[in-house]
Recover the amino acids of this structure.
């Protein structure tokens, strides 16, 4: 089984565009979860991929280009395999 890396993306969206953005983000490869939320950000997305470059591509070249997305903040899961080798680079203690 391939170790899937994951990040959590917090997304700010233009007023009135949340449902359309949610629909577009939910269709993206690697997005395993997406929800409209309340608070400082408007949406949350969990993205999983085999490597950091794959996940980065999804954020920069896909999510950022969706109409209505104003900005994002990415939280990297600490068990992310940033080396591209099998197994996590950082393990929780």
């Amino acid at each position: 089984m391939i170790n899937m890396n994951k990040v959590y993306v917090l997304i700010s969206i233009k007023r009135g565009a949340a449902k359309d953005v949610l629909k577009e983000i939910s269709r993206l490869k690697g997005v395993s979860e997406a929800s409209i939320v309340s608070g400082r950000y408007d949406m949350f997305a969990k993205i999983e991929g085999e490597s950091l470059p794959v996940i980065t591509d999804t954020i920069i070249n896909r999510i950022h280009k969706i109409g209505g997305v104003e900005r994002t903040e990415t939280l990297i899961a600490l068990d992310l395999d940033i080396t591209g080798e099998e197994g996590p680079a950082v393990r929780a203690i």
Notes: The radius of gyration is 14 Å. Confidence is low (pLDDT under 50) at residues 86-93. Helices lie at 18-26, 52-61. The chain has two helices and four strands.
